Structures are given as C-alpha cells and as structure tokens.
Amino acid sequence: MAVPRRQRPLVVCVAVALLLGFAAAADDRHEQAPPSGEEPADPIDVAARGELPQQAAVTAADDLEYDPFFDEEIEAVEVFDPLESSNRAIYRFNRGVSTWVFDPLTSGYRFVVPGVARRAVLRAFHNLNAPIFVVNHLLQLRPIAALETLGAFAMNLSFGVGGLFETASGARLELLPADFGQTLAGIGVTTGPYIIMPLLGPTTLRDGLGFVVDRAFHPLTYLLAAPVQLIGYGGIGVARRDEVHDALSALEDSSLDSYAVIRSAYAQAREGEIEEMGEGEIEEMGEGEIEEVPEGELEEARVREDAAPTPEGPL
Length: 315
Description:
Blueprint: H1 8-30, E1 47-48, E2 56-57, H2 68-71, H3 84-112, H4 115-127, H5 130-139, H6 143-158, H7 180-186, E3 194-197, E4 201-204, H8 205-215, H9 220-223, H10 226-254, H11 258-286, H12 295-307
Antiparallel strand pairs: 1-2, 3-4
Helix pairs in contact: 1-4, 3-10, 5-6, 7-8
C-alpha cells in the first residue's frame, strides 16, 4: 500500500526514532553499574581518535572540579606557534560562538535525545569515517589494518544498522583510525605552524591539509549535495560538541591560560598518534620476518655441526 506523500516525512521520523530506540535498548543491556562501595573509574579520557585530524574524544565528567590537564602531570611541549596573536583572537571568537550558539544547541540536543541514543548516533558518525581510515592505511603500507577496518565497517554498516550498533566487536574487528596528516608525517613532512581554525579548532598546517584531503574520501561528500553537506557536518559537530562539552568547560573555567593548555594537549595527542602509527607499521612488517641470530651463537652452531658424526655408507 503506497504511503501518501504528505505522510512520508512522518513515516521517516518514526522509523529513525525506532532505530534509535533499539540502539538505546542494546546499549542499556551492555552497561553495568559499578559494584557498591567501589569508586567509579576516572571519567575523563582524552585522546585523539583520527576521525578528524584535529579532534580528541573526551568522556564528560560528572565532577567539574576534576581537570585532567592539571590533576595529571603533562609535560610541557614546545609548539611552533608564530601566529599566536591571530590564533588567540580566533580562539576568543570560537569561545564566543560556543557560548552563544553551540552551548544552547548542545543543551537542547541533550534535552531531546537520551544519552544512549546520543552514543548510538556518535557510533554511526564514527563508522562513516571508515573509508578515510582504509585509504590512509593503504597509503601507509598497512594492509592488515586496512582489511580489519574495512571488515568492521562492513559489519557495522549491515548488521549494525548503519553503525548504530557496534557489531564488529563480536567478530574481534575494530575501526583503526588513520588520517592523511599521519600519512604525511610518515614520509617526513613536518607539522608546520600551529593554527586555530574558525569554528573547527586547533590544527597545524600539515594536519589542516590532511583534513581537506580526507574530506575527499568521506561518504557524505558524494551522497549529499553541497548545501545539505553543511547540515550533515553540522549535525556531526553538535554530536561531538556534546561529547567534549563538560571537559572543555571545566578546562576553560579552571585554567589561567586555556589557550596554552589546549595547544600543549593537542600537540601531545598528535605526537602520540604519530608514534602509534609507527609502532603499527613495525608490527605488520615484523610478522613474517626471521629472527636474527647473534654472530656468536651462529659460530657455535657451526662448530657443533662440524664436530657431529656423519652417517656411514651411501646416502
């Protein structure tokens, strides 16, 4: 039976709501409350994920007095920042936009969408980055990581209803992040100057270029028209802003110079990602290699072989 044209938007909204509800129910089944008497684990987990070159995923803290940047020691990182004066001006502009635009949007998003559904939406957005990951793993000569990421993407997309459910973990597959900024770093391209982008936040010249290249492999670039892409990326931005909102607010309220702290934190996160990429390359290259025998042990083996009795008679 055909659905009247006027009722089609309502049917689509109901279908999306049902999918989010199923994702929320699945997420609830996997969540377990900590045993009574035990303190919960540290709520802050700041680490760059590679979904986008300059983003760090942060789990919001319930206690805003806890600040990971100050309660845990962070070594000072020297960052090349020749544009500091203009960067600080853009940083203040971004904070103003956050206060007057993104914070109200985040509050409304949290009020309308339950937490488990928000996490399902974030998983779906993260799954859309898989083509970027696969291409960069291949460019970095990491075929095993590329195959694993491709398999996880296919499972989440099909059995996970577009990525709302994390089904790939059941097959011991996961999305392994990689971006073009890492690829450039792997061939020796330096970071370049530190830059604060309007609305997008911190990056460097190398990572900013990588961000532009990565957009060429994002599915939304080809599935949506240019004006609709802005809406799609805006939705992704709101979802990710919700993820980092509390931690960033605590940082800005508690630090004397939040600009300098964010700059150091970003530099450390990206440096850690580059190191992990190098470790992954070594692991893949070393899987089929023969273990090197020290020269002394090799000489002893030759002596024992010469001293061993040889069989008599014809072979």
